[in-house]
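Lab meeting, item 3. Inverse folding demo.
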């Protein structure tokens, strides 16, 4: 089956959406399909060996420079809309000659534009966040097209999304974990210090990821006799500068915190395999309510103890038998749980074991198989479709 994975944002990238697209494309090829990535970026190949075809014009290149600067500004939103429409026009022309069985996309505007331009092929549309405004209206239109399969990450988001767009056919398609993240042996690399950390960015699409709340926890723990280091892996440069100022303000000794520059996603397992505790600090918010953080299954696969902020979104994915939930309102709560981890490690190792069993189903191969099965079921009675 010929599949095109579509990215209307920069690709390749180490951001979560880029990892998901690249790993999904590689899994599709492993399963015997003919899969490529089409992007607003440049033609070439990514680190996984996927063929990348750039559909870019001088104007889209200019627009892309705008929305790479600040994804939260009004000008950026306008640039992204124009970029998606122009990309859809160029893609539609290409689809006259090349006819993949499935387009796999994450851009509501792009999919709506293709359907308005009478593209009849099957499209799988991933929705990872709750749409607003124009995107909501467009998604209501898309949801009732038999040639479009809408997927999301969690049962909680599926329910809320179906209610908002008045449909009942959204498919759950959870995140996947590359095989290199799975730790074959239970033994972690031995270190003299307790290694804790966070992998990712300080913000996501302009939304704060709650990392600032970790520094009072680090400060409190530094005042105990615990020997530890907290690693922040992959933060933006401006975030590192701001957090370094926060470290000075709180008078946290520098040896307790390490900032590690962004690394290729294939290098992340090497850090996680040395990390005993992985933090998921996202605050409770409408934006975060539908998130399925890619780091959760990656922590589980690498046998890190998962410490997650106590939010409905995190509890919809995990439970007390797999993770430790801490209050973001009281730093002493997290500190007490960390001290408990040191003193009563067996209880936490049981949680690690449960999480590592749970995550075995979260492979990219299975993700592709389940999604394609959903496409087959949704479109089987449509003439000219799969």
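The presenter then showed the designed sequence:
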């Amino acid at each position: 089956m010929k599949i095109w994975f579509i990215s209307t944002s920069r690709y390749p990238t180490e951001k979560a959406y880029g990892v998901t697209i690249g790993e999904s494309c590689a899994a599709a090829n492993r399963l015997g399909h003919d899969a490529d990535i089409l992007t607003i970026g440049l033609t070439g190949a990514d680190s996984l060996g996927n063929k990348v075809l750039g559909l870019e014009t001088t104007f889209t290149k200019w627009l892309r420079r705008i929305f790479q600067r600040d994804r939260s500004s009004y000008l950026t939103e306008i640039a992204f809309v124009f970029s998606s429409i122009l990309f859809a026009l160029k893609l539609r022309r290409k689809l006259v000659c090349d006819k993949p069985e499935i387009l796999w996309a994450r851009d509501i505007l792009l999919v709506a534009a293709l359907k308005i331009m009478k593209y009849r092929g099957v499209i799988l549309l991933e929705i990872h966040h709750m749409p607003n405004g124009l995107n909501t209206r467009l998604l209501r239109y898309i949801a009732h097209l038999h040639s479009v399969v809408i997927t999301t990450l969690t049962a909680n988001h599926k329910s809320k999304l179906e209610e908002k767009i008045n449909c009942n056919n959204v498919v759950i398609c959870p995140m996947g974990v590359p095989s290199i993240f799975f730790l074959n042996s239970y033994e972690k690399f031995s270190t003299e210090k307790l290694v804790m950390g966070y992998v990712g960015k300080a913000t996501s699409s302009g939304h704060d990821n709650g990392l600032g709340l970790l520094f009072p926890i680090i400060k409190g723990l530094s005042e105990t006799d615990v020997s530890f280091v907290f690693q922040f892996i992959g933060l933006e440069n401006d975030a590192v500068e701001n957090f370094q100022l926060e470290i000075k303000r709180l008078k946290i000794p520098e040896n307790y915190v390490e900032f590690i520059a962004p690394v290729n996603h294939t290098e992340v397992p090497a850090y996680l395999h040395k990390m005993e505790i992985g933090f998921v600090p996202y605050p409770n918010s409408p934006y975060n309510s539908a998130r399925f953080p890619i780091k959760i299954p990656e922590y589980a696969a690498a046998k890190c103890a998962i410490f997650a902020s106590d939010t409905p979104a995190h509890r919809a994915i995990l439970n007390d038998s797999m993770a430790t939930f801490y209050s973001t309102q009281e730093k002493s709560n997290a500190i007490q749980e960390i001290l408990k981890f040191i003193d009563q490690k067996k209880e936490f190792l049981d949680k690690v074991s449960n999480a590592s069993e749970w995550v075995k189903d979260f492979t990219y191969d299975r993700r592709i198989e389940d999604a394609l099965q959903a496409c087959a079921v949704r479109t089987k009675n449509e003439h000219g479709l799969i």
